[in-house]
Amino acid sequence: MITILLADDQPLVRAGLRALLDTEDDMTVIGEAADGAEAVREARRLRPEVVLMDIRMPELDGLQATRALAGTGVRVVVVTTFDLDEYVYEALRSGASGFLVKDAEPGEIRHAVRVAARGDALLSPGVTRRLIEEFTARPAGLDDDRLSPLTGREREVLTRVAQGLTNTEIAEQLFMSPHTVKTHVNRMMVKLAVHDRAQLVVIAYESGLVRPGRPT
């Protein structure tokens, strides 16, 4: 059973999300929060697996609340009306495991919760496009210092994680078992001090290991 906390300053939005998720056999909403500070308190108290976090809230905004929960083991999926460029990159940098807009289909939201709960990352197609555009505008160049903890094989795996491949797809490309890929991914998270695949994707782009449009 995936436990969920809803953080949004609009009661009707919280009610709608609760109705959407509580009907699923594998999900249960265990709490709600009306502002960012309450979201942090309730997440630390209730220890949900996933928090659906609005960005614009009183007290603390969703980005600040997400940063406060980084490293706690709680997965945050940012759900917002404000589908704007400046939030996409910062949401991921703040530790979010996914980013969806509120007009997403119900199935997309449920899928995002399941993806986040298992430790993977989910971005809506529009968000992925703008994230890539963000890095396209940056100067090219490889930051070897950032990647120095990684072995050559781990860099190969990281490249494919950033391309959005699953462990099974990476295993097929690199001729290894999915379990071995998972081991590499977990070791990279430890070495790079991140908590999920979304953060690995950010590092892959920030370091220049992966560049949009560049063959890998």
UniProtKB/TrEMBL annotation:
PROSITE patterns for the chain: HTH_LUXR_1, HTH_LUXR_2, RESPONSE_REGULATORY
InterPro entries the record matches: CheY-like_superfamily, NreC/VraR/RcsB-like_REC, Sig_transdc_resp-reg_C-effctor, Sig_transdc_resp-reg_receiver, Tscrpt_reg_LuxR_C, WalR-like
GO molecular function, one term: DNA binding
Domain Response regulatory: 3-117
Organism, scientific name: Nonomuraea cypriaca
Family annotation (SMART domains): HTH_LUXR, REC
Domain HTH luxR-type: start-end pairs: 143-208
PANTHER family referenced in this protein's UniProt entry, alphabetically: TRANSCRIPTIONAL REGULATORY PROTEIN NARL-RELATED (PTHR43214:SF24), TWO-COMPONENT RESPONSE REGULATOR (PTHR43214)
GO BP of this protein: phosphorelay signal transduction system; regulation of DNA-templated transcription
Alphabetized SUPFAM superfamilies for the sequence: C-terminal effector domain of the bipartite response regulators (SSF46894), CheY-like (SSF52172)
Modified residues (4-aspartylphosphate): D54
Designated name of the protein: Response regulator transcription factor
Keywords for the protein's UniProt record, in alphabetical order: DNA-binding, Phosphoprotein, Transcription, Transcription regulation
